[in-house]
Amino acid sequence: MDVLIIGAGASGAAVAWSLADTRMHILCLEQGGTPNPANFPTTGRDWEARRMGDFALSPNQRRLPEDYPVNDDDSPIKVTNFNGVGGGTVLYAAHFPRLHPSDFKVRTLDGVAEDWPLDYETLDPFFAQNDAMMGVSGLAGDPAYPVGKEPPMPAAAMGRSGRKLAHAFNARGWHWWPCDLAIATENYEGRAKCINLGACITGCAQGAKGSVDITYWPEALRKGVELRTQCRVREIAVDDQGMATGVHYIDQDGLEQFQAAHVIVMASNGIGTPRLLLNSTSKQFPDGLANRSGLVGRNLMFHPYASIQAVFEDPLDGHNGPHKSILSQQFYETDPARGFVRGYTFETSRGMGPVGTALAGMNWGEIPWGAGHHSAYRTLQDRVSGLFAICEDLPEAHNRVTLDPNLTDSDGIPAPKISYTLSDNSKRMMAHAIARGTEVMEAAGAKHVHTTAPIELAGWHLLGTARMGTDPSRSVVNEWGRSHDVRNLFIVDGSIFVTSGGANPTSTLQALALYIADQMKHRLANLFD
Amino acid sequence: MTAPTATSFSATEQKAMAALVGQIIPACDMFDQPGADDEAILRDILTSGSHLRDKLAVALASVLPGEGFDIAQATEFRQKYPFEAELIQTVVAQCYYRDARVMRALDIEVRAPFPDGYTQAPNDFSLLDPVRERGEIFRKVPRRDA
Question: Mind telling me how many Å the CA of B11 is from chain A's nearest CA?
Answer without folding.
Answer: 24
